[in-house]
Amino acid sequence: MNPEQCDPAVLEALIRKERTWVYPWIGILFGIALGIFIGHPLSMLAHEFYNSLNSGAPVDLRGAFFHSFHVHMWPMTLIFAGFGGITWGFIGFILQRLRESRLRLDAAHRELLRQARYLNTYLTVSSMVAQCLDPHELLEAVLNVIMETVSAEEASVLLLDEDQANFRFYSVEGPAKQCLMAVTFPADKGIAGSILQTQRSEVINDVQRDPRFFDELDSKSGLVTQNLIAIPLTAGEEKIGVMEVLNKSGGEPFTDEERLLLDSIAEEIAFAIRNARIFEYVINTYCKQRQGQKSCKGCQRPLRSWTPCVKYLENSL
Fold it and tell me: Is 31 contained in some domain?
């Protein structure tokens, strides 16, 4: 079982596979063997002692073990077989229950660890959003955290341009970063375009067979997309773009639990991007109104606070 998952159906299938129904049969065979090789000689020995007591003749140990094998064998053989079957059947039942309990405890432990890791990821991203005003710096950190959490090889954020007609890669983390940062493509193309329109996140574990797949991006980047999670970025009713996480490590499929985690993070990211845009717009407008149209050219972008504008005003008084 994958240590990252706790699928009840998989767990039950594993338990059924581990059923110890074979133990009673082992017990019966073992009992038959005991009956043949121990029960029969013991019964014959008892028979010889009984005859010796009645007749006064010495006990024939050789005869007790080797003569009339088939005559006195079956009663003791059946007794030992029944005893062995019951004993080993009971042992098998106990072992089966212990095995099932251990599997369920292990699965519950893995589930708790997974939930704790997801919660820690969400809290980490929320803290980053609250502290960082630079959207590029924020997304770089967030995408790396997401990739580590879901074991992905690539992650990106695609934003709509001002005309809402094209996607551009606003932030990319992974091997194809340098190739994709300059790429734009129509907002109605590919899986990203579909996600933007439907506003529903999806897990796609066989991307190459998906008819919506826009393979030109793989051609430009040299990346081979195997599977992905695509999440719409929406701030209120405003469509911001799409976040994608690609190619889970080891060829494993992405899960719905990972999709739900990214859904919760995507909302934080969308509002952070929108707030950063509003912040930039307000500062630019303020500077141009108070200090002239060219006043913002000397300020480093993106602005992280009001400090440059305040210092400018203090020096001009």
Answer: yes
